[in-house]
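Q: Peptide/nickel transport system permease protein, please. Structure only.
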Amino acid sequence: MQKIIRRILLFFTLILFISFISFVLIDFSPIDPIASFARSRAIGLTPAEKQALILKWGLDKSLLGRYFIWLKLLLKGNLGVSNIYNRPVLEIIKRGFSASLLLMSCAWVLQGVVGITLGIIAGANIGSLKDKLIKLYALIFAATPAFWIGLMLIVIFSLKLNWFPASMGAPIGVRAEDVSFLQKLKHMILPCMSLVVVGVSNLILQTRTKVEDILNSDYVLYARAKGLKKKEIVSKYALKNMLLPGLTLQFAYFSELFSGTVLVENVFNYPGLGNLTVEAGLRGDMPLLLGLVVFSSVFVYAGNRICDVLYLFIDPRLRRKSGK
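A: Structure for Peptide/nickel transport system permease protein:
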């Protein structure tokens, strides 16, 4: 029970710290939210209208004053109203998350399956041609930004081959409620590929190293001495002992996945949280940006906690330790 209370307190401390730092950074940003608001609507604002917006958005108050007002709203479950959209932040995030969830889920699952599989193949065949090719791929793409991959995929598969749409989350001119799942899936393929192609790199390298360590361990040497074949050793020892480290790496990828999604969604003009984050940042929409910061923090923290719970189910030793 004490451990749960400690984690809850740690979570709230984390939210307070991240939100305050974000608040300060946004406040010191050179972007003028009022000027951005006027430019986005292609209108000129009179001094009276500017003053009205300053009062409405609380820009006449001190930084700490505005932060505590926002914090009070947060404790009531209210993230405020977006300056850009003039709608509740929570409503905007829900809509963006529904689009991003499908993209991130597909990328996360594919990254795990492909990355761990290739890592095991490379680790089980150290020094072979397979290992060298897989390692070369991982090293090259580990240093390649996801947005650049996205641009290359657009050029090849959209402009040259015309296989997939270049942007948007749905066909142009089709109402949101009329978009089919297959249409959404087709528009999601290139953004998902951008995330997976880069995302598997670190997972391949770390899985490869772990499998190599397992296959060089004493109990595997003993298994070889007993006459077990390579396939049996890999399936019986390597796969079993890779489960927990692989799970850790997968859930640790939550934060990288979110940051990669921000850039990729912007490249493909995909209507998700990433696109919202860039737009809110460039236009100085503090309520929306802070809402996205809180949401992303909860998202990453939840991923780590889910990993802890799964650990208890997978490894009985951890259940015994937690019960003591």
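A: Brief note, in case it's useful. The CA atoms of residues 214 and 241 lie 8 Å apart.
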